[in-house]
């Protein structure tokens, strides 16, 4: 989606680029081409979530969730010429996060499929794990403290713990990515109860970039949690005109308060796929939408 004017917001380590008006895609890319970068794409998968994380040269690629089935998720990868994923992580076994894997035909190779210890969604879980076995993909259930291979970055699971059996949204695998200086936090559909328990375990959740939980629902994003994360940029993956009223006005109000500026709340229903470039040790750059 293009906007007719651009503004620069320089907030701490972030530069937010509002596209476009005399500034081309090539112009923006040239600003970051000299740095080692990772690209985070919040794919527009409607009422669901999928984040593609890859190096600028496509030497490696990771995936956090795959949206719903019948949303063209795999087409998004094919258009980007993605034929291999080092790993994919299923936050939990709800169809709007894992359903895309039901259409996996093996044309994209995945080395390892990590997944939450979500006790729900048994049929969906079993169906997808069978596909993984068919395509020779290793499967691993994750828990707090586990580190995923992440090249120069650190990728760590913060939730759930291995000693508590939970199902549904609060079983969402929370992923923290860090370069030792800045962080991004992905919470899946984590709700208020899960947030509270995570806060008891993790006393430093600060992250410059936050994937807002449960599509901005009232059941997620407690003020206490948001204040602890203190994001500079908040991304909501949500379907246009969805029947759930996501994102909730109360959630948007809290996010505006915490970020200090409603323009730092970015929604896929309004803006489509969002692209963030992460320059190692240099910060995060919202490239365009």
UniProtKB/TrEMBL annotation:
SUPFAM superfamilies: Metallo-hydrolase/oxidoreductase
Domain Metallo-beta-lactamase: 47-240
Pfam families given in the database record: Lactamase_B (PF00753)
Protein name: Competence protein ComEC
């Amino acid at each position: 989606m293009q906007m007719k004017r651009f503004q620069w917001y320089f907030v701490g380590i972030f530069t937010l680029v509002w596209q476009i008006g005399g500034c081309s895609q090539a112009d923006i890319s040239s600003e970051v081409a000299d740095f080692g970068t990772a690209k985070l794409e919040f794919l527009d998968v409607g009422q669901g979530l999928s984040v593609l994380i890859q190096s600028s040269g496509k030497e490696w690629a990771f995936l956090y969730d795959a949206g719903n089935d019948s949303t063209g998720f795999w087409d998004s990868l094919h258009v980007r010429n993605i034929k291999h994923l080092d790993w994919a992580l299923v936050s939990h076994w709800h169809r709007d996060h894992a359903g895309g894997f039901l259409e996996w035909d093996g044309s994209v190779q995945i080395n390892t499929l990590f997944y939450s210890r979500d006790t729900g969604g048994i049929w969906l879980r079993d169906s997808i794990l069978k596909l993984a076995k068919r395509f020779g993909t290793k499967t691993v259930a994750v828990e707090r403290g586990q580190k995923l291979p992440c090249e120069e970055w650190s990728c760590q699971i913060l939730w759930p713990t291995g000693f508590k059996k939970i199902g549904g949204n609060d079983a969402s695998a929370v992923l923290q990515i860090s370069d030792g200086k800045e962080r991004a936090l992905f919470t899946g559909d984590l709700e208020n109860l899960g947030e509270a328990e995570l806060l008891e375990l993790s006393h430093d959740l600060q992250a410059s970039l936050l994937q807002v939980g449960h599509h901005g629902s009232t059941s997620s994003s407690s003020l206490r949690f948001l204040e602890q994360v203190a994001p500079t940029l908040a991304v909501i993956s949500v379907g246009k005109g969805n029947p759930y009223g996501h994102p909730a006005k109360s959630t948007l109000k809290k996010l505006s308060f915490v970020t200090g500026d409603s323009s730092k709340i970015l929604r896929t229903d309004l803006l489509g796929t969002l692209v963030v470039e992460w320059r190692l040790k240099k910060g995060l750059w919202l490239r365009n939408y």
